[in-house]
């Protein structure tokens, strides 16, 4: 019986020290953890994702409706601003709201001739489908806020694809409202 107690005490003591011996090995592994940019789930995207702006609008509007918000209309100038941003992201293979020329989302919208009283932008990269993009934006608080901008009335959406980049697909959504006497005071 005495021998059994000694063995149990030794095993318990050894178990209590286990995390201490394991810690250096675990910490050494942390140095090799991949960064977000190095991780791409599933198989690589081999062809350009299909994007139907009307279906995207309908999905966003259905979501906005559940929150009691008015629907958005697709605007050609905002589509152009979104396309410019998506292509710029693909060219640089990164996500950034500032364009390679230093432009902001508002600058890009203005360049299309759209006179905005409100501008918002969501971007994403690496997703294979519009549905994946939308779900990611819903799950991200800052992107979700843009989807639910109460004063937005119009939108533009685009995707760019480049097989030679890490992310391959680059998505841009521009939400806006034209400048009116009502929202002009927000800019003065």
From TrEMBL:
Matches recorded under Pfam families: CAP
Organism superkingdom: Bacteria
Domain SCP: 58-169
InterPro entries: CAP_dom, CAP_sf
First and last residue of the signal peptide: none
Name this protein carries in UniProt: Cysteine-rich secretory protein family protein
């Amino acid at each position: 019986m005495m021998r059994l107690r000694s063995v149990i005490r030794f095993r318990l003591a050894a178990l209590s020290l286990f995390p201490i011996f394991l810690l250096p090995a675990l910490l050494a592994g942390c140095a090799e953890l991949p960064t977000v940019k190095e991780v791409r789930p599933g198989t690589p995207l081999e062809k350009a994702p299909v994007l139907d702006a009307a279906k995207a609008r309908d999905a966003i509007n259905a979501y906005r409706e559940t929150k009691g918000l008015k629907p958005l209309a697709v605007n050609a100038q905002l589509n152009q601003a979104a396309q410019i941003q998506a292509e710029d992201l693909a060219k640089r293979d990164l996500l950034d709201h500032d364009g390679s020329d230093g432009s902001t989302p508002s600058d890009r919208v203005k360049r299309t001739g759209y006179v905005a009283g409100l501008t918002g932008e969501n971007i994403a990269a690496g997703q294979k489908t519009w549905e994946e993009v939308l779900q990611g934006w819903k799950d991200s608080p800052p992107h979700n806020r843009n989807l639910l901008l109460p004063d937005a009335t119009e939108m533009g959406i685009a995707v760019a694809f480049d097989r030679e980049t890490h992310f391959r697909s680059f998505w841009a959504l521009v939400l806006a409202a034209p400048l009116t006497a009502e929202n002009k005071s927000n800019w003065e």
